[in-house]
Amino acid sequence: MTLKRFLVLVSAFFLIPTQWAAAGEIMVDQSWVMLPPPNSAAAGFMNIRNHSDEAVTLVGAETASAKRIEIHRSQISDGVARMERLEEVSIPAHESVVFSPKGMHLMLIDPIPLNEGETISIQLKFESGADALVKAMVQRRPPVEDAGSGHHSHH
Which of 5, 30, 55, 141 has its CA 20 to 30 A from that of 102? Predict the structure, then answer.
C-alpha cells in the first residue's frame, strides 16, 4: 500500500465529506471532545488541514449532542483568561488550523450527558456551503499521538 493511499484511508476514518465530492483537500485529524463536568459546556478539538489551492472558511458546526456549537478562542489578557466567540475561522491554502485546549475550540453549549469513550458526530459548516462530518471521541485528556515523544507525526 502506498503512503498516499494509506493517508487517504486514515483521513477517511476521521472525515466523511458530505458535499466535497472531489475534496480530499480538507482533512481533519486528532478530533476529540473533552469530557465536561456535569451540567457544563464541552469543548471540541481537532486539526483542520487545507490541502487545496484556496483558503476555506469554517463558519460553524452542529451536533445532535448539544443545543448549539460556537467557535471560541481562549486568550490571556492582562493575566486574565477569557474566551472570545469567533464568527469564522479561515484556513489558508496548504495550511492547518489547530483547535486545542487554551486556544481555538468548538464550544458545545448545553450538551447531552456525555460519557468517556463514546464517539459523537460534529458537522463542520464552511462558507462555501460545504460541510463535513467529523467523529470525535469523548476523552478526559488529549489523544496520545506518539507514545512518549510529544511531537506531531508527519508521515
Answer: 55
Residue 135, pLDDT > 70, answer yes
Q: Domain containing 71: what range?
A: 9-138
What is the model's pLDDT at position 42? 97
3-state secondary structure of 136: strand
Output the nine-digit C-alpha cell for 3.
503512503
Count up the domains in the chain and report the number. Answer: 1
What does the block give as the cell for 43? 469543548
Q: Is the pLDDT of residue 26 over 60?
A: yes
* Dihedral, CA of residue 35, residue 38, residue 39 and residue 45, to nearest 10: -10
106-to-2, 13, 14, 50 alpha-carbon distances in Å? 34, 20, 16, 18
Could you give the CA distance from residue 136 to residue 142 in angstroms, rounded to a whole number?
11
Alpha-carbon 23 to chain mean position: 17
